[in-house]
Fold:
Amino acid sequence: MLLDAIWQARTFLTGDNLVYSLIAFSFSLAVVIFGLAWTAPSYRTGRQLRNLRRVQPSRRNMLDQYDARYAAPEGTSVTGPARIKAIFIHPVKSCGPVEVDKAVVTKAGLQYDRCFSFAVDGDSKKSDDAPTLQFISQRTKPKMSLIHTELWLPHEGSNSKDPLVHAGGAVRLTFPDPDPPSLVRSLQACIEQMSWNATPRYSFVVPLTPTICYLSDYDLKPRPFTIHYREAHGIDVGRITAVAAAFPKLKKLLGYSEKRTLTLFKCTPDTLTHTDRNLAPLSNIGSRAVQGYTDQQPININSVSSVQAVSKMLPKENQPLNALRFRANLWISGAAAYEEESWKRCRIVPKAPRVGERDSKLATTLSIVCRTSRCTMPNVDPAKGAFSTQRPAEGKKMGLPQPTTALVEYRTVEDGNKAALGYLGMHAVPEDRDLKAAREKWANLVLCVGDEIEVLERGDHLYGSTANLY
Structure:
């Protein structure tokens, strides 16, 4: 009987019948793949972004950060000017960065940098119905590094009626799906990522600026929350349907119970905070420095040479040290290690082409106000979402955290901040003169990869020494 069935099938799958069967199978397979792709999370969010364009660099400028040509030991002479090697913004505080070729400079730092922040309810409450919300970061939730962010902005062909175009663009957040995947979800992940061993991911979209439409439809309101020692404010966009739908999965990813309150805040111009420590002279910056959801100052600068120097201090198993652990905005090359610590003011001179219609060719002057006192965040491996340590000593179960251990030992170069776990990088504030000059030309003050850095003033820094300057 089995032989008879095989013979009949062989007879049928000949000539035209075989061709028709292959066509029908191929068509059915294509329909299944299209259906899986159409319903996959990334494609659903992608359709929401159809009138926007993703902001991406022309090349990934930190891929060669470990190259020996950037190894300029402390005190050595370097020929040629220092330059901006790479620019990063971090739209959502403590989540993945976005690399860009250029960035618009504002009074509060680089446009779109740290303009969102996640927050959870704390143990203490101001009242029975108003829990105190506290920002969260990789210091306690290292898996936040696995939340990748993309910046999407309108373009010339955008439909102005699209709510996200009206909102000035959007941020798409993508993270590993913490729920056990179904067969369908696993197949969708393979199609999304073009890989047979892909891990399912979840993504959602947040409007950059909650417009009147969003404010009224979702009853969005400003609320306070805390960032370290200070009270911050922002629009609670956690009520937007797509954002709220992501919170259960985010709680699982980060290890919060279902009962905890998790939300997302958006900084607005009227919720900026005046910096209250490490203040630059008003004679230089013009008006008081302000910040969004950055920890201390509007802009952070770091040097590839400095990170390479720190990397050599680490145990072999912790080398090389990924510079992106330090989450700087501007990465510089062409300067000896730690040379930036002597800068007090610098001018960034346009050298790279300005391609945007509103991109000015004006230089940008920055006041360098203090060293960056480090915390435990550089210990997070951004690729793994976990803290890294050195190999445990004999008889020990746990190894010492790195690079913090090395930074404390070798990079405690001042005593201004008693809580500092070493120092690396510099904080900076834009000066008003250049911002005003750009406004008068109806243009944007921009920084581009390849721009040169001219040091105007040098001097000593001590963290906290100008706390009461104004």
In short: The first strand starts at residue 52 and ends at 54. Residues 107 and 345 are 16 Å apart (CA to CA). The radius of gyration is 26 Å. The mean pLDDT is 90.
